[in-house]
Specification:
By secondary structure, this protein is mainly alpha-helical. It contains three helices and two strands. It has a two-stranded antiparallel sheet.
């Protein structure tokens, strides 16, 4: 009988030349540059605008001494949960605090206005 001698596989390390590194870097940079270009050129397209301008009107309530958001919420929407109404008022008016000052005008969300 004869024996077959199988030589072990030789593992070689991948070596990139300077030119190969430059080509690989360019291939990685092209998609990034394309995405950046699209983002810069199309960045203003996502802005919401209307040709006649924003013509939105809200009913407002003027705060008097002793008024609270909770009291206003119960007054404008007696059948709704006051917590939800106060939250909607705070978000609409971008209030940092829940304390009202006399004379302050508070916009009322349209879902709670009398129609």
């Amino acid at each position: 009988m004869s024996t077959i001698d199988i030589a072990p596989a030789v593992h070689t390390r991948l070596r990139l030349t300077v030119r190969g590194r430059r080509v690989l870097a360019a291939l990685a940079a092209v998609p990034a540059a394309a995405v950046l270009t699209v983002a810069i050129l199309g960045g203003g397209a996502a802005l919401a605008s209307r040709s006649d301008g924003a013509n939105v009107h809200f009913e407002t309530v003027t705060a008097h001494t002793g008024d609270t958001l909770w009291g206003i919420a119960q007054e404008i929407a007696p059948n709704a949960d006051p917590r939800d109404v106060v939250d909607a008022i705070v978000r609409l008016n971008a209030l940092d605090q829940v304390t009202l000052t006399p004379g302050q005008r508070i916009a009322i969300p349209t879902q709670y206005t009398q129609k």
